[in-house]
Design brief:
407 residues, alpha/beta, seven-stranded mixed sheet, five-stranded parallel sheet, 33% helix
């Protein structure tokens, strides 16, 4: 079978790699020179800077199998276990995210009344939540109380989706959690299992390995392709950039995106007064404009030269799209101002690097599952739509979908 794959991100390259192994004649077409999509590793001034995901959870067999097939096992690096502490900015202070029921009860992440309401979740789990497609905020407010929804659910959504929990569909955004029956507290469903893992030279390692093993055409404008020359076309581009017409184009245009700017800052490590850990998230309405910060050299120490600490600040998101219009100086000032507030002081950065993602993260908002049905009905039989705009935004989800599909 002759197959065209549009888009050389992780979904497109993995799809092509596996179809090629099955004996199909596959060509990947990428409109730009750079491959990788939202996976983008650059090296600046001795720093390894990830502009997209800085790793993946090692709990997906499809990803581990792909790594082994590509011979990249020895390139894997796991995150520093000493950097496991995560923080949430609330009421003018960084507060550690609890790691056990006891630390939650006796911690200060939420006021006492809100903590007690969270512990009552098993009782509320017995009551059905009304509404055909509840938002993430509605679900968490029903189960854990409004205060927990405003802080915990907001931070949860900010860290994964850069989205608005009052718009995101709970079932579409967190399908595994939505399928669980009964109390989440009793099940211990606090988050996904697995260790954050990357590669010695960054996430682009797996992109480069895949690109070497498939037939790839760069600078290939997708609109110039003739679909009738292929038995199937697999389009893995963002929905907003998918070449489509008529009802399909109109349906795809209804998938919104959260734009994100990434400001990477390298400080003299000895001058940074931040608490040790993974980083922090800033829920909406708590006084910071940034979405949060990742302490890159705490997580992966080798990502900056000795003596430097590398930090990535995330700005924008679904509720602050205008942030991407700020110039580099304004973005840097915003990042430093909010870091200074969270850390009480911030040193002068030795290096500043900035990248903007206008189509940062697809948003699975209320009505997403019904919208997918509309999209499927409007998709011609020779075309398959895949990638992060539809079933899952994570690296793992994109790889698993690609590995398990057959034409």
């Amino acid at each position: 079978m002759k197959i065209a794959v549009l888009g050389a991100g992780i979904a497109g390259l993995t799809t092509a790699f596996h179809l090629q192994k099955k004996g199909h004649d596959v060509v990947v077409y990428e409109a730009r020179d750079r491959v990788g999509g939202n996976i983008f590793t650059e090296r600046h001034e001795g720093c390894t800077v990830e502009w997209g995901p800085n790793g993946f959870l090692d709990n997906e067999p499809a990803v581990l199998g792909l790594v082994q097939e590509l011979g990249l096992q020895d390139e894997l690096v796991r995150s520093n276990p000493d950097a496991a502490t995560r923080y949430i900015w609330r009421a003018g202070k960084l507060r550690a995210l609890p790691t056990s029921p006891r630390s939650f009860v006796f911690g200060d992440l939420l006021p006492l009344g809100a903590r007690l309401r969270v512990l009552a979740e098993p009782r509320f789990a017995k009551r059905e939540l009304t509404g055909a497609d509840p938002s993430v905020h509605e679900f968490f407010a029903h189960r854990f109380g409004p205060a927990a929804a405003d802080v915990l659910a907001d931070a949860f959504v900010t860290g994964i989706w850069a989205g608005d929990p009052k718009r995101l569909s709970f079932r579409a955004a967190f399908p595994k959690m939505a399928r669980l029956k009964g109390s989440l507290l009793k099940r211990g469903a606090s988050g996904p299992a697995g260790t954050l893992t990357s590669f010695r030279t960054g996430m682009h390692t797996i992109i480069d390995a895949l690109a070497e093993r498939v037939t790839l055409e760069r600078h290939a404008p997708w609109e110039s392709l003739e679909p009738r020359a292929f038995d199937r076309v697999v389009c893995t581009t963002p929905a907003a950039r998918t070449p489509a017409t008529g009802a399909l184009r109109d349906a795809l245009a209804r998938i919104p995106y959260a734009p994100v700017a990434v400001v990477a800052l390298a400080f003299p490590r000895a001058d940074v007064k931040a608490p040790d850990g993974f980083g922090f998230l800033a829920p909406h309405g708590q006084g910071l404009r940034i979405l949060g910060a990742l302490y890159e050299t705490s997580i992966f120490p080798e990502r900056a030269p000795d003596g430097l600490g590398l930090y990535r600040v995330l700005i924008g998101g679904r509720r602050d799209p205008d942030a991407l219009a700020l110039d580099d100086e304004a973005l840097t000032d915003l990042a430093l101002r909010d870091l200074g507030q969270a850390w009480t002081s911030v040193p002068t950065p030795q290096h500043v690097f900035i990248h903007r993602w206008p189509l940062g993260i697809a948003q699975f908002e209320q009505g997403h599952e019904a919208l997918l049905q509309t999209i499927r009905a409007a998709t011609p039989p020779w075309l398959r739509l895949a990638g992060s705009s539809y079933q899952g935004i994570s690296f793992n989800a994109c790889v698993a979908e690609a590995v398990h599909w057959s034409p």
